[in-house]
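Notes, p. 3: input format for complexes.
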Amino acid sequence: MSYLRLGVNIDHVATIRNARGGIHPDPLRAAEIAEQAGADGITAHLREDRRHIADKDIKLLAENLTIPLNFEMAATDEMLGIALTHEPHASCLVPEKREERTTEGGLDVAGSHNKLMYFVDSLKEKNIRVSLFVEPDTKQIEAARKLGADIIEIHVGRYCDLESGDLRAKEFARIQSAAKLAEELDIECHAGHGLTYDTVAPIAAIPNMKELNIGHFLIGEAIFVGLDTAIRKMRKLMDEARAS
Ligand code: PXP
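Output follows (244 residues plus pyridoxine-5'-phosphate):
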């Protein structure tokens, strides 16, 4: 099976830094450690309220990373301007609500074609790969294709939150079908949200999957074992799932 890339989301290194308003821990240092531990890319989400990643982090990451930066952003003029300034490898468009704790649900690509077209076209014009964060839903993936997105990132948060049982099996089947459809439509398929050591293997074993983006669990686990060890273990679980 093809190699599955690991994107490490470092947002919550910035969450801890911001708790004291200083400079520690440094997200760029975390990104460098992630790279040494086997991350294939770094993801950072600059939210409208700057609750974790700050503008200066994006600048430093864009200037210093030697692996691809995936800039997660809401579809707003402000974020588009920042993406066009720093020209990350990719931009992942996500829905964003000020009051949410984390990204809840995928983008309604099917219902906002005209609005999203401007963002997709502007990013692609600068050779920034465009990823759309969507639910594992045929309608949304077909709409992403119509927009010319390069990538869909499937929201697997619901799958990760469900206890084992029928509902979970059904959600997993939706993710499998979504990944297959993406490949048929020539869109690269990624997945993310809520992945842990316990939930990663089945998602990693989906053959059409090309990249997983994982953040909160890894940064939390790093408190106990260190970031390098946490990422290496995730990488190993992904490789084992892929080989099985
Ligand atoms: N992918 C997207 C689009 C996200 O919004 C997030 C959370 O910021 C992640 C992946 C990573 O999710 P988690 O932090 O739960 O691993």
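The mean pLDDT is 96.
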